[in-house]
Structures are given as structure tokens and as C-alpha cells.
Specification:
The protein is of the alpha+beta class. The protein has helices at 3-13, 43-50, 54-65, 85-99; strands at 31-34, 37-40, 69-71, 77-80, 110-115, 118-123, 129-132. It is built from four helices and seven strands, in the order αββααββαβββ. The longest helix is centred in the C-terminal third of the chain and has 15 residues, at 85-99.
């Protein structure tokens, strides 16, 4: 097989990248205060939009906010302390940058996999792979 045939074959097997990252909007956090606890009301909707495990997203929230918390029976994230929606939005944006959007093409068509103990962000759109913390 010569170079041109291999190139044609590679292009045929590469998935088409439809659209751009503008089709993906990071959801705004819907938070409210309940005593000394911040309740992240739309936590499940946000993590479903990211297509990520709730425990992974929750751990990131806790680490970035420097607090403890849990997911209640209704699926809301309950974070110890008082955090306004802007602060939670910043953390959600940081999660998106690190664990959702591809660093090469910027698309959200990614998934997290574990390979040899390392957490890898694999892009289904362009095929890029990058190590992440975790």
C-alpha cells in the first residue's frame, strides 16, 4: 500500500467533526444557601451535560472549593460552607476546561478512561489523548 492509499484510508476512518465548540454551553450553577450549606440544585443536570460520573465531579468541586460535601437523595450536591453562584460557576468552568473539552480541537466529544493507572481524556472527534490529574 502506497502513501496516497494509506492517507485515503486514514481519512475515511477518521470521524467527521460536526459543528464546533460553540454548540456546547457550560450550564450555569443554580445554587442556594441553606444555613451553613450551599445546595447545588442542578448538579445532576450539569454532570449529565458533561457525561461524567457524579463522584468525579463532586470530588473536583470539593477539592477546588476546599470543603466537604455529599450528594443527597434528590441528586443535589450539598457543600459545607457559603459559596455564591459565581464561585461555583468558576469551578464548573474549570472542570469543563480540564475534564470535558479537548485540548486539541476544543470539542466536548470526550470521555475519561483509565490506562495504566493514569486518567486519560480521549477525544472521540479528533482522536487526541491527554493525561489529566486524577
Amino acid at each position: 500500500m502506497d502513501y496516497d492509499e494509506m492517507l485515503d484510508r486514514g481519512l475515511e476512518e477518521t470521524p467527521d467533526i460536526v459543528g464546533d465548540s460553540a454548540r456546547f454551553e457550560v450550564p450555569d450553577a443554580d445554587v442556594r444557601q441553606e444555613g451553613h450549606v450551599t445546595v447545588f440544585e442542578n448538579f445532576q443536570a450539569v454532570r449529565r451535560k458533561f457525561n461524567r460520573d457524579e463522584d468525579h465531579v463532586m470530588k473536583f468541586l470539593q477539592d477546588e472549593l476546599g470543603t466537604s460535601g455529599h450528594i443527597d437523595e434528590s441528586g443535589r450536591a450539598r457543600l459545607t460552607g457559603s459559596f455564591d453562584s459565581g464561585r461555583v460557576d468558576d469551578v464548573v468552568e474549570a472542570y469543563t476546561e480540564e475534564f470535558v473539552l479537548c485540548s486539541e480541537c476544543g470539542l466536548p466529544d470526550t470521555r475519561l478512561t483509565r490506562e495504566q493507572g493514569a486518567l486519560i481524556l480521549k477525544c472521540d472527534a479528533c482522536g487526541a489523548r491527554s493525561a489529566t490529574r486524577g
